[in-house]
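My main concern about presentation is that the manuscript never shows what a single data entry looks like. An entry of this sort, consisting of the sequence and the corresponding backbone structure tokens, reads as follows:
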Amino acid sequence: MPTTRASTKKTTAAKATKAAAPRMTLAQALSALEKAGSAQTRKTYARHGAIGPMFGVSFATLKELTKRIGVDHELALALWQTGNLDARNLAVKIVDPARMASADLDRWAKESIASRTCGSYVGMVAAEGPHARRKAERWLEARAENVRCAGWSLVAHLAQRDDAAPDTFFEPLLARIERGIHAAPNCERGNMNLALIAIGCRGAALRKAATAAAKRVGRVEIDHGDTACKTPDAAATIEKAWAYATSKGSPSPAALERTRETPRRRC
């Protein structure tokens, strides 16, 4: 029996309906996070400086939820508003950076925790949106340490992923890092070091300038608390990154990074 145009339309509509999974609600997302939490992960996050309410959800589980949800800007805003650390860690992964209002970015930076968790991710979100360079300039001048930390995270991700930014945007920041890194507060010092490395991975000219600055800076002391984390040596890390990029046929570590999914989503 021949297939009619009407039956074909019905079949196509049925497939589309079946393929479109229902959006996850805020209640469902929080329930999934709570079920996935563990006391051990809460202890791990606390050792890394996390404070406030949290379930203790691993980043492996957050990645699974991120794949399941995709991009859901409204859900991301609602998750952040809860104040729960795990909800905020999920929020920065599913948010649409292009839709983030300037005021929302400022609020997230102010409310972020100066730790390895959602604090650095706010900088990643800003780096993917239209307000990136303006926010970097403003956040680095903020009085609050956590906002400056987000600013240096933003600088690092701009250096790696914004191929349109001119080198002249980053050059003065090398001098600023060299001048102030040793006197900066602990979290800011760590993010300044990461920004120094990222700038050195951007291109040949900045590689030379950042490596020279890193050698003048020397050893950077950062208190990682009761963790196994270690402070990367900036000069050595820059050289290692370039060696790896060259082995992959890439013109720079930053160019290689841009071929991958953003670390906000993949990590």
Notes: The radius of gyration is 21 Å. DSSP finds 16 helices and no strands in the chain. Residues 25-95 form one domain.
